Amino acid sequence: MSTSKKHMHRPLGLRRRALLTVGVVVLSGAGSAAYAVAGPAGNGTAVDHEVRAAAVRTVGLAGQGDGRKGLPKQDTKEYSAALLTWSDPDAELKGTAQIRSKGVGTGKWSGWQALPDDPFSADGKEAEDAATRGGTSAVWTGPSDGVEVRVVAADGSASALPSGMDVKLLDPGTDPAGAPKPVASARDVTPAPSDKGTDTPAPAGTTSSPTDPATPTAPPTPGGTATASPSPTAPAPLPSTVVKPPIITQAQWGASTDYDGTPEYGQEIKAAVVHHTGVDQDNGVPCSQSMARMRTIQQEHFARGYYDIGYNFVVDRCGQIFEGRSGGMDLPVIGAHDVGFNTNTVGISYIGNTMTLKPTRAGLEAISRVVAWKFGMYGISPSSNVTLVSGSPLGQDGNKVAEGESITLPRVFGHRDTNATLCPGDALYGKLPLLRTLAASPGVSHALTRSDFDGDGVTDLVAGTPQTGSGAGSLTVVPGGDDGPVASAGRIIDQNSPGVPGSSESGDLFGASNAYGDVNGDGYGDLVIGSPGEDDTSGHADSGLISVMYGPALNTGTSYGTATATRAAGEKLGTSVATGDFNADGKSDVFSVAPGEPGRWWSYDSGTGAATSGYLNTTAYTAAVSYAAVATGDFNRDGYADAAVNFRDPSGISRVLWLKGSSAGLQRVGILSAKGGRSLAAGDVTGDGIDDLVVGQPGTTESGTTVKGGTVTLLKGTTTGLTATGAITLGQDSPDVPGGGETGDDLGASVAVGDYDLDGYADVMAGSPNEDITRAGVNRVDAGAVILFKGTSTGISGTGSVTYNQDTADVSGDTESGDRLGSSVLLQDLSGYGRADLAIGADGENAGDGVFLQLDSGSAGISAKSALYYGRSNLGTPVAAHLGQTLAP
Questions:
Q1: Rounded Cα–Cα distance for residues 560 and 616 (Å)
Q2: What string of H, E and C letters represents the secondary structure of 11-74?
Q3: Element (H, E) at 530
Q4: How many CB atoms lie within 10 A of CB 742?
Q5: CB within 8 A of 631, min separation 6: which ones?
Q6: Rounded distance between C-alpha atoms, residue 448 and residue 438, angstroms
Q7: Which residues contact 380 (CB under 8 A, 6 or more apart)?
C-alpha cells in the first residue's frame, strides 16, 4: 500500500471508533517484558523501557485561522507512530498534513514529516462493517514523547479542511517476553495437489517496467470464472512442496488480539500481491524495531476499520518475515491489501518506501520464499500467469477493474497492476521479474541467510583471536545494535566455555575462521568455528575440528571432523569455514577445507549429519596446499548454494575450485581458468540477482599478475555459473583507484562484499595491511589501509573508489608502524538499516593487542565521524590477542 492517485477513506468500525476516541486506549496482546530499544533514525539513542502495554492516544486539533488546523508543540506519553483522522469518511484532505516529534531520551525534535494519503484496501463484509471516520496513513516516528501537528488547506480556506480532526499517537508498547523467536522451518515436504486453476505460461522475456504503470497482459474483459464467495469456515491446510521459511508469528511480535471480527477464507491461493508500506520514515526503521513497527501497522489498520492487519505477511530489509493477518499462515486467509482482489491472493508487504530507496537482497529473498511456500501448497508456478475476477466496483478506492470483469496478470504482481497507486514503489516493482525467478528456482527451499544469533535481524560480529593462550584460541561475539556492534554485550568464547566441544589446548587455533548460518533450521543464526590445530584422540596432530554452536544461547552444539577411516595428521580441517544450504532442505550446511596433504574439501549436511568430501585437485596432492580460503553463494541463481575454494597448490600457483549445489548436495564442477589469490568473498556485485566471486591477490607469484602491490579480481556469476570471461582486475595503479601500487602492500590480503549505499550493486572492500603511510615526513611501515570499490552493472570500478586509513579525517586512532589496518575486512549491515557498514581489523595495533574499527554507512555515504573503536579496553580480550585477525560473518 502506498500513495494513491484516487482515494476514498473508509470509516472506522463502531466498536473500534469508540476505543480510539477516548484519551488513552490499552490494546490487549502487547508485550510483557522490559527491554532496551535503540532510538529512531535522527531522533534518539538507546533507551531502557519499563514493561508497557500497547496504547492509542487521541488528541484533537484546533483551528488556527486562514485554513489551518494544528496541535501546538507539547510533551506526550511515549508513542512511535501517528496518523490523522476526521469525522466525514467521504471528505478529502485538500492540503498538507505534517507532524514533528521529540525523541525519547534526547529531547531532539525531528523535522516536519508528511502524513501520507493511502487507499483503503478492504472489500466485502469487512468493508461493509467499517464505519464513520476518514484519515491518513500512519508515519513511523520512532520512540517519541513530544508532538506538534500542522494542517494547511491548499486554497487557504478553513472550509477546505475536514471537521473533527484529531491525531492518534500509536504506542506499540514493549516487545513480548523472550522475543524474537522465529518459527522453525518445516522439516518435511510432501507433494501438493495439482493446480485447480489454469496456468498460462508467462511470455518469454516478459518484464515489468519500474517507471510506467503496469500494463496487464490482457485488458479487463467481462466474464471469466467468478470468484467464489468468502467463507468463515477455515479449509483444511495443505502441505507444500517448498520448505516453510522461519516466520515470526503474531504472538511473537506482540500483536493485539482485540480483533474487530473474525477471519474469512478463500478456497485457494492463486496469486501474490506485492506491496511496500510506502512512507519514507520506514526507510529509517532499524530491524531491531521491526516488531514495534508491526504493532503500529496493526494499530493503524485497526484505526481504519480493518478486522486485523491488512497484509498476510510483512518482510523487513534484514529478511525477517512476520505473520500478518491472523487466521492461519498456511490457509488462504482473505486480507485487506488490494480492494477487489483480496480473495484467493496473498498480500506481502516490504517495510519501506521503494520509490526512494531500493529493496535489499535479504528482503527480496524473504518475499520469494514466502511466495514459493504458499504457491507450493497449490502446485502453481511463480513464473506463470493467472486470470482474476474483480470483486469490487471500478474506482472504489482506486480499483482499476470493474466488478465482475477479469484481468490476466503474472502470478506475482504489484499492487499498482490492479489499483491506481504507486505501490509497491518503482524499485520493488522493477524487481518483480527477479522475484518470480527466485521463487521458481529449483533450490527455492534453501535456508535464508541468518547472521545473527539472537534473532533480532541485526548482524552480530565475530572476531576470532586464534593466537590467544599459546594458540589455544578464542573468539569474541559482539551483538549488532542500532548504533553498530554493542561492545558492552560482547562475550568471549573458547573451548572451555559451556557447551563448546573439546577443551582448550595450546595450538588448537580455535577461532581461526568463523561463519554464521541457520544450521538447525530454527530461525536463529548458529556459529561455525574452525580449529585447524585440534588434535584428535587417536594421535593425529593438527587434524582439525569444526564446532557448531546453536543460537540464541551459543551454549549447545555439535562438532565435525574428517572421516576417521581416512584421517591424517596435519590436514588442518577448519582453516577456513563457511555455510550454505547446498541441497536446499531449509538448513544451512557446513563447508570447510583441509589444506594439509592430501588437500580436501569437506561438506556436512545439517539435515542428516552426513559428510561429503573431495580432493581439491582431481587427485590427491602429495604436499600441503596453502592460503586456503572459501566462500559460498548462489553463482548460477538456481537456489542452491555453491562453494568456491581458493588455494595455492604445491607448485606455487593459486587456483579457484568451483563446487555446484544440487538436490544431492555439492558436486565438483572444476578449477576455473582464472588464477586465485589468498582471500575470497561472494556477493551480487553486478545487481543481476546472481552472486559473483571476488578474489584477493596480494602476491604476484601465485596470481600470475604483474601489478605491484596486489590486486582484486571479480569473477562474474552467470546462469551457468562462475566464469573467467569478462573478469575485472583492479590494483592501485588502475585508473581512478587511490594510491599507487608498491611491492609488499598486499592489497587483497582480505576482501569483503556488501552494498553500502543500497544502490542495488554490492561493493567490494579490500585490505592492504602492509601499506606504508607517510605522515609529517615520517614513514609508518605496514600501517595499513583499505580501499572501497564501487559495484556497478558491469562489475567493480575504480571510479568512485575511496581509501581509508587511520590518518583519514575522523577515523579513530593514528597510523603507526605495524598496525596492519586491513588485516581483515567486513561489509555487513551491523546496525539493521539495510546498508552494509564497514568493519576493519588492525591486528597489530597496540603492540599486537589488536583492534577493529566500524564505520557507519548512511544515505550520505560512509561516515567516519561515527566510527567506533573496539579493542582490549572495551571488549576485554587478552594481551597480544591480535584482535582483528579475522572478522565474520
A1: 19
A2: CCCHHHHHHHCCCEEECCCCCCCCEEECCCCCCCCCEEECCCCCEEEEEECEECCCCEEEEEEE
A3: strand 526-531
A4: 16
A5: 578, 643, 644, 680, 681, 682, 693
A6: 12
A7: 195, 197, 199, 269, 270, 386, 411
**Helical segments of 306-413, H only:** 361-375
Q: How far is CA 199 from CA 281, 386, 445, 489, 762, in A?
A: 39, 6, 22, 52, 35
Closest Cα partner for 379 from 126, 189, 142, 185?
189
What is residue 75's three-state secondary structure? Answer: strand
Which DSSP string corresponds to 561-617? ---GGG--TT--BTSEEEEE-TT-SSS-EEEEEE-STT-EEEEE-TTT--EEEEESS
Dmax (CA) for the chain in angstroms is 90
CA dist 696 and 823 (Å) reads 12
Total count of residues recorded for the chain: 889
Smallest CA-to-CA distance from 763 within 803, 726, 797, 791 is with 791
At which residue does the C-alpha cell 579457484 appear?
A: 656
Q: How far apart are CA 152 and CA 301, in angstroms?
A: 25
Instruction: Answer yes or no: are the C-beta atoms of 512 and 471 closer than 8 Å.
Output: no
Pairing of strands 134-135, 218-222: unpaired
DSSP-derived 3-state class of residue 815 = coil
| Residue 319 cell numbers, joined | 529478511
Residues 708, 742: contact at Cβ < 8 Å?
yes
Taken in order 878, 884, 885, 889, is the CA torsion positive or negative?
A: positive
pLDDT, position 394: 92
Q: Which of 266, 287, 274, 227 is nearest to 371 (CA)?
A: 274
Partner residues linked to 802 by β-bridges: 788
From the number of C-beta atoms within 10 Å of its C-beta (0-12, 13-18, 19+), residue 8 rates as: middle
Contact assessment for residue 667 and residue 659, using Cβ atoms and an 8 Å cutoff: yes
DSSP, collapsed to helix, strand or coil, labels residue 302 as helix
C-alpha cell at 742: 608498491
Cα distances (Å, whole numbers) of residue 817 to 772, 784, 820, 855 = 8, 9, 8, 22
DSSP SS3 for 544: strand
Which residues, other chains included, contact 211 with Cβ-Cβ below 8 Å and sequence gap of 6+?
Answer: 426
Read off the C-alpha cell for 120: 483503503
CA 766 to mean position of chain CA atoms: 23
Q: What is the chain's percent helix, strand, coil content, to nearest 5?
A: 10, 35, 55
Single-letter amino acid code for the residue at 572:
K
The answer to whether the CB of 734 falls within 8 A of the CB of 799 is no
Could you give the C-alpha distances from 11 to 349, 772, 835, in angstroms and in order?
Answer: 23, 68, 38
CA–CA separation, 470 and 205 (whole Å): 60
Q: Is 301 exposed, middle or buried (0-12, 13-18, 19+ CB in 10 A)?
A: buried
What is the b/e burial string over 486-508, where b = at least 16 CB atoms within 10 angstroms of the residue's CB? bbeebebbbbebeebbbebbebb
How high is the pLDDT of residue 45? Answer: 36
Classified as helix, coil or strand, 159 is helix
Beta bridge partners of 230: none
Tell me the average confidence (pLDDT) per consecutive run of 10 residues in the chain, 889 residues long. 38 32 34 31 41 88 85 93 86 86 94 80 70 79 93 76 89 78 38 32 35 37 49 89 94 91 93 94 90 93 88 95 96 94 96 93 95 96 96 90 96 96 95 95 88 86 94 93 88 94 92 94 92 89 94 92 82 95 94 94 93 92 92 95 95 93 95 93 95 93 79 96 94 91 90 93 95 89 94 94 89 88 94 90 94 84 81 92 93
DSSP string, 84-116: EEES-TT----EEEEEEEEETTT-PBP--EE--
Cβ neighbours of residue 118 under 8 Å, at least 6 residues apart?
A: 1, 2, 3, 4, 7, 136, 137, 278
